[in-house]
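I'll show a typical protein example:
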Amino acid sequence: MDFTFSEEQQMLLETTRRFIAKDYGFEARRKIMEKSAQGANREVWQGLADLGLLALNVPEQHDGLGGTPIETMLVMTAMGEGLVLEPYLASAVLATRMISALGTAAQQAALLPSMAGGELIAVLAHDEPATRFDWKSVTTTAAAVDSGYVLTGHKSVVPHAASADILLVTARIAAPGATGRLGVFTVPRSAAGLRQIPYATVDGAGASEIRLDQVRLSADALLGTGETDAVTAIGEALDAGLAAVCAEAVGALDRLLAATVEYTRTRKQFGVPIAKFQALQHRMADMVLHIEQARSMSYLAAVRCADPDQDARVSALSAAKVVIGQACRFVGQQAVQLHGGMGVTDELDVSHYFKRLMAIELQFGSTDHHLEMVASRLN
């Protein structure tokens, strides 16, 4: 299979890299973390919109670019290289795809152009305390009433929720005679009965616990016509998110390796750079092997994440997450060890890459979970 990128795709990657290098260096990122509890900056977000990056997954009829998962992979790789804190994955990938897949023409027209332009941030609120890695175990309920719905439940570790203007809340629709099909509801952050508890995550991005206590919504808050179970669309959106975070991991891994190689060339022991020590050369060679395997699996995930064959899609994505999760752990740990005690200090970017990679290893299912998924399909 040919993985040579087109001229337009290469320009997209380089444009994103230039923006991050110019406006999102390590010190700029540190200031954003210090000033914002949400780990996000609206000026940076608008800069991403001005480049057209927020419109990448928006259909063309709604002021978007109608991009493919390959373009998303390239942008997310650059995001990983720069350790970008903004909710690109949460809003421009997951939420945008959810609205595009489920929303009526009127709902898409009302939401997607504003999201593409940077005026509106939407975040998917799906995970719950008891779901673990079974994403279908949703207990939040939406009770149908004459004028709309009443939502009750608890969403856990919702990334970037404090930055969001609206939340896309998944819930089981409860009505007389209903089977409890899944629906996705647009909930304004200021809705009565919605309580948000934000906190910092280990990678600095931030997340929130979301409590929904009798949140009353109009009938048009439900994405779609209300007659279709949203389970397929939710699964496809999460698969697209998994592929995107795999690409982000590859970008972070590349930068971590480069920082480690540079450090070993300048750090001296016994009068010579430690990069001359054969044992450390072997470690760095193993790091390269893990990263190249992760890169190839990231390409596979991007190609297969939109596969209409669900079994083939899930198998490929689980395999990719296993290889990339193993690379995150191995390369991250080796980089910290090769830097010595400095590797875990906040002053050094290595520690921030390490923490982000450890978060990615667990995001959308841990390495062990996906390894079990792969094994179960071989039996």
